[in-house]
Amino acid sequence: MSISKERKEQLLKFQEKYNLKFKDIELLEQAFIHTSYTNENNLDEKMSYEKLEFYGDAVLKLAISDFLYNHFVDYNEGELTKLRAEIVSDKNIFEYAKILGFEELIVLGKNERKQGGAKKESIIACAFEALLGAIFINYKKQGYEKVKSFLEQNFIDDILSVDKKIRTLNPKAILQEYTQGINKKLPEYILVKEEGKAHNKNFWVDVKFNDEIIGSGCAKSIKKAQSEAAKNALKKLDLIEE
Questions:
Q1: Please, which of 78, 139, 175, 242 could form a disulfide with 230 given CB 3.0 to 4.6 Å?
Q2: Mean predicted lDDT score pLDDT of the chain
Q3: What is the DSSP letter of 23?
Q4: Using CB atoms within 10 A of its CB, is residue 174 exposed (0-12), middle (13-18) or buried (19+)?
Q5: How confident is the model at residue 105 (pLDDT cuts 50, 70, 90)?
Q6: Cβ distance 189 to 203 under 8 Å?
Q7: Rounded distance, CA 82 to CA 3, Å?
Q8: Is 238 one of the annotated active-site residues of the chain?
Q9: What is the C-alpha separation between 167 and 171, in angstroms, rounded?
Q10: Does the annotation count 90 as an active-site position?
Q11: How far apart, in whole angstroms, are the C-alpha atoms of residue 76 and residue 79?
Q12: Helix %, strand %, coil % of the chain (to 5)
């Protein structure tokens, strides 16, 4: 694989910035080569990131499982699986890759680049997994620990904050879990008022616990207003992010 002087300097700067050292710079380059480039230039598909991605996907899931198992010791298998699925989703990995500057590093065919491939979630997320695969291979026996270290140094806050983001999806259930953990009592939802015509009403709901209003919400249905009240209560209790 022929790498230009400018490209080599770009890759060397990347690995220096993120505390990486590849014995073979071509292995690092491979992690950024999309199949559109190999196809367009009549190159062997093995030169693209696909096989590295296969490896990196497995290493990523193992490393994230390791983080979650050790950080969320009270979570059951189902909760840990839900967190891991969110963390390793293309949506999140794409955000991690953008932080590392993958949009400038990815190597695409001319047509794919014209079609905005450098900003495509699926392409960039796959390249991120390929990079992890390359790191794993490059560091051999220390490969797994190096991948874990790379993720921890750059993304541990993002990884662990996913828990709070997921909690916003079902605030009533989380609030109920919280109150029952204190004194086995349930939060009480009170319809305060409703305004508007029958087909376009607004509902205001308060949620009480231990005779104290801990959150309020307003929405187009009582159910959604209750959910908003629970969400605001969780924010007040610092159980989810603002």
A1: 175
A2: 92
A3: S
A4: buried
A5: very high
A6: no
A7: 41
A8: no
A9: 6
A10: no
A11: 5
A12: 65, 10, 25
Q: Is residue 111 part of a domain?
A: yes
- Give Cα separations from 25 to 3, 9, 42, 141 (angstroms): 9, 10, 22, 19
**Averaged pLDDT for residues 156-184:** 81
**End-to-end CA, the chain:** 49
CB 143 within 8 A of CB 135: yes
Q: By the 8 A CB rule, do 144 and 136 touch?
A: yes
Tell which of 137, 163, 189 closes a domain.
163
pLDDT tens column, 20-71? 999 999 999 999 999 999 999 999 989 999 999 999 999 999 999 999 999 8
The H-or-E segment that residue 230 falls in is helix 222-236
Q: Judge if 186 and 155 occupy the same domain.
A: no
Which of the residues 57, 112, 206, 228 is marked catalytic? 57
- ∠123-129-131 over CA atoms, to 5°? 100
Q: How far apart are alpha carbons 129 and 61 in whole angstroms?
A: 10
| Active-site residue (options: 29, 53, 112, 129) | 129
Alpha-carbon gap, residue 203 to 183, rounded angstroms:
29
pTM above 0.85?
no
Taking each helix axis from N to C terminus, what angle separates 143-167 and 50-71, rounded to the nearest 10 degrees? 60
For residue 242, being part of any structural domain is answered with no
Average pLDDT over residues 183-207: 93
